[in-house]
Amino acid sequence: MTTLQYGSTGPSVALLQLALKRAGFYGGETDGIFGRATEASVREFQKSRGLKPDGISGARTHRALMPWYLGYVIHTAVRGDTIYKIAAQHGSSVRAIETANPQLDPLDLRIGQSVVVPLNFDVVPDSIPYSSALVGYCARGLAARYPFLALDEFGRSTLGRPLYSLTFGTGDARSLFAAAFHANEWITTPVLLKYVEELSKAYASGSEICGVSARELFEKCSVCFAPCVNPDGVDLVTGELKSGSYYRSAKALAENYPDIPFPSGWKANILGVDLNLQFPADWERAREIKFSQGYVSPGPRDYVGMAPLSAKESRAVYTLTNRLDPALILAYHTQGGVIYWQYLDFEPAGSRDIGDTLAAASGYVLESTPYASSFAGYKDWFISEYDRPGYTIEAGRGENPLPLTQFSEIYADNRCLLTSAAAAAAGIDR
Fold first, then answer.
1. What DSSP string runs through 170-190?
2. How many Cβ atoms from other residues are within 10 Å of residue 102's Cβ?
3. Sign of the alpha-carbon torsion through 250, 255, 257, 263
C-alpha cells in the first residue's frame, strides 16, 4: 500500500480506517477521508507498536497493521503455551485455531512453533469500496483461515495485478464463478468473496448453507471462484488509481466518449477494452454491432478490442476455463435482477431447468439475452464451446456502480443462487 497521511482519500484510506477499527484504535466512519481523527488513531496505534508516532501510515505502519488487513496473526509458541491460552491472548477461539492449523497437535505444542490465529472478525468487509489490494488481502486471509481452500493466481492484469482464484471442494463436479468483468460492477467481487467465507465457515462447522450440506458440496464439487477479473478497472472506478500515466491515458480515452461519466461509467480494462466482448463467440458480429453504436476505439465501455482474447484478463479467464473444464459457469455482472441463460439457439441439456432453479433461489427473472448483447461474452463462448449450462447474473437494480447500501440485499439474493448452481453441477437435490 502507498503512504497515507492527512488529506489522503480513497479506498486505501477506508481500508486503513477499517484495520484501525478492527484493532481497537478507531471509532469513526470508514469514509475514506484521512482527517484528524484518523491521524490521531494512527498515532495511537504507532505508539502501541513502538513506531514513530508521526500519524503517517507508511510501510512500517502498514506492516504492523497487516493482521487486521488479513484477519489473522502468526503466533510463535513459547513455554507454557496451550491452544486455549493462545486463543484467549488473541481474542480467537480454539475451533478457529484448529481449523486454520489442521496438522497442529494441541497436546504436542512445541516452543517456536508457528500457529495461525484467526482474529475475531470476518475477513471480507462489505462496508468499504474495493481495490485490487483489498481483494488480495481477502483471498490470502481466507486461505489462511481455511486451508482447505486452494488459493491460486490464474494470471496477471495489464498493470501486473494478480488475478486470484479460490477453490472450494475436491469433488469431480467442477464449476467456475467469476465476477467484476466490468470495472463499475465491482460490487460483485465482495458477493463472491463473502460467499466463499460463509461456505467455508459452514464446512468447518459441519453445517448447511441454504439447505445443502457444505461437507457434501465439498466432497462432490470443486467450485473455483474468480472474484475480480478486472482489478485495474476496479481501482480506476473506486478511486484507488487516480494518478500516473495509466490514469491519464484512461481519462484521455474517456474524453472521446463525453456522454459517459468518468470514472464511474468505466466498464473496460485499463486499456479501454471491454473484457466481456473479448471471447470467440461470433466476435466479428459483436464488433459490427458495437461499431454501429459508435464504440469504435478504446474507451470506457463496449470496445471489443483488436481481436478476440487480445486483453490479458480475458485471455486468463479463457485459459482458466479450459484448464478446469467446468460443468457449469456463472458470470457476475450488475444490474437488473436478471439471469441470462442462452446463446442464440444453443440450449445445453438441463440449462433451462437449472436456470429456473437459480431464478427461484434468487427472485431474479430468467430471460433470453437481447440480440444486440448476444455475442462475444464469456457466457456465450462457454455455451457455444462446451454445450454446457452457463449464466450471466445481473445482480441488483439501479445505475452502475451500485452503492454499497445495496450489498446486503444483493448478497441475500445470491447466496442461495450460488449454492444452487454448485449443487446443480454435482446433481445434488435441494
1. -SSEEEEEEE-SSGGGTTHHH
2. 8
3. positive
Neighbouring CB atoms inside 10 A of 238's CB total 26
What is the distance between the alpha carbons of residues 110 and 195, in angstroms, rounded to a whole number? 35
Chain centroid to Cα 293, Å, comes to 31
* 243 burial via Cβ count (<10 Å: 0-12, 13-18, 19+): exposed
User: Using an 8 Å Cβ cutoff, are 176 and 258 in contact?
Assistant: no
8 Å CB contact between 14 and 134? no
Ordered DSSP codes for 217-280: HHHHEEEEEE--S-HHHHHHHHTS--SSHHHHHHHHHHTTSTTS-TTTT--S-TTS--GGG-SS
CA separation for the pair 237, 185 (Å, rounded): 9
Handedness of CA 253, 257, 260, 265 (dihedral sign): negative
Q: How far is CA 150 from CA 123, 140, 143, in A?
A: 16, 10, 7
Q: What is the dihedral of CA 118, 122, 125, 131, to 10 degrees?
A: 30
Tens-place pLDDT, residues 53-70: 999 999 999 999 999 999
53's CB contacts (< 8 A; 6+ apart) are 43, 44, 46, 47
User: Are 317 and 229 a contacting pair, CB within 8 Å?
Assistant: yes
C-alpha cell at 81: 503455551
Q: How far apart are CA 289 and CA 276, in angstroms?
A: 14
Q: Which active-site residues does the annotation give? A: 394
Sequence-distant (6+) residues with CB within 8 A of 160 are none
pTM reported for the whole predicted model? 0.97
pLDDT single digits (tens) 414-428: 999 999 999 999 888
3-class SS of residue 59: helix
Of 291 and 427, which is predicted with more confidence?
291
Residue 220's identity, in one-letter code, is K
